[in-house]
Amino acid sequence: xxxxxxxxxxxxxxxxxxxxxxxxxxxxxxxxxxxxxxxxxxxxxxxxxxxxxxxxxxxxxxxxxxxxxxxxxxxxxxxxxxxxxxxxxxxxxxxxxxxxxxxxxxxxxxxxxxxxxxxxxxxxxxxxxxxxxxxxxxxxxxxxxxxxxxxxxxxxxxxxxxxxxxxxxxxxxxxxxxxxxxxxxxxxxxxxxxxxxxxxxxxxxxxxxxxxxxxxxxxxxxxxxxxxxxxxxxxxxxxxxxxxxxxxxxxxxxxxxxxxxxxxxxxxxxxxxxxxxxxxxxxxxxxxxxxxxxxxxxxxxxxxxxxxxxxxxxxxxxxxxxxxxxxxxxxxxxxxxxxxxxxxxxxxxxxxxxxxxxxxxxxxxxxxxxxxxx
Length: 374
Ligand code: COA
Description:
Helix 3 packs across helix 4 (91-99). The chain folds into 2 domains: 4-329, Peroxisomal Thiolase, Chain A, domain 1, CATH 3.40.47.10; 340-374. The chain is built from 12 helices and 13 strands. The protein is 39% helix and 21% strand. The longest helix is centred in the last third of the chain and has 33 residues, at 341-373. A hairpin with a 3-residue loop joins strand 12 (311-318) and strand 13 (322-329). The strands form 4 sheets. A 5-stranded mixed sheet has the order 1-7-6-4-5, with helices on both faces. The chain has a 4-stranded mixed sheet with strand order 8-13-12-11. A two-stranded antiparallel sheet has the order 2-3. Coenzyme A binds at residues 29, 33-34, 37-38, 113, 156-157, 160, 195, 220, 222-223, 225-226, 229, 259-260, 263, 287, 318.
């Protein structure tokens, strides 16, 4: 086994900003209440036509460009999401097609807001195994969500929390020291009803009743989720560090799921970590579920808060219930390569190629199916 290293990172957030003041005009709430209870000041909302896959694709191109990787190198694409474009096909397959990732296996992973940590652990293990035939040892791991489409905008207890966006990392197998050191994952399905979308699956298929009873939206028992999160995040962090033979004292930065500032503060207190070592951008984006950790990681790197050889832990909790943490020793020099006209041109050409390839495949399939019909 050789370690998997994070060699590229990228994010995409929609342009449209929804502030607390905007929400206070629609529902019975206030900026003061939302800030005091959650720390969220504003969130991004996908425009009409933007989808989980379209945001995932943007974040992916950014991550590939940062890694200097081409889509054809990828072995594997995992999209962690609770808001896929469709129940099937997988959003990861839409991303695979849009990137022209001709050699990649592609699947979605559902683990609520812990999805990105789960996906990172699965991908790191898959590409670390050197003896997989045909493996190039590169994977794209994405967290992407369009939560605004499953948010009940009449429910003030939940709608103030969530936002849309996507983040992605490129993982590459490499003999050098560092990279993903350990991953701890857990689940407790007995708490599944604390945070769920009741209808739309095979248990409660879409019907007039499910729509009129608003069962296609997020339902949450906030206080219980809060209590679970405040316990699960520090425990998972400790265990991931222990598995890597490290302690909290070795931690340069904790990158937690951005659910709520009070939960981040509780985790910092439980771990005895100064709050400066707990990354937070929850004020700007709210809770973007599986996208929150990769967006936060990307911004922490861009802000110069992560340096080569630093130990970071990404830790999440969410629907399922699920929790997970992964310890990473950052192994690429920072800042990354500055953008150059050649790099921009290379990725424009790769994008044009991927679009042309997808169009040609669809056209051929259409022509072939018409031909068979005659
Ligand atoms: N604006 C104003 N008042 C609100 C409100 C809002 N947006 N939402 C709820 N309230 C009211 C409630 O109606 C309640 O009023 P009441 O006392 O008159 O009944 C009061 O505020 C307290 O509600 P409560 O739900 O007990 O508040 P809370 O302190 O638990 O905060 C959350 C609510 C959702 C912010 C908090 O429970 C939380 O963050 N939970 C974790 C959620 C989470 O992270 N989910 C994602 C997991 S991935």
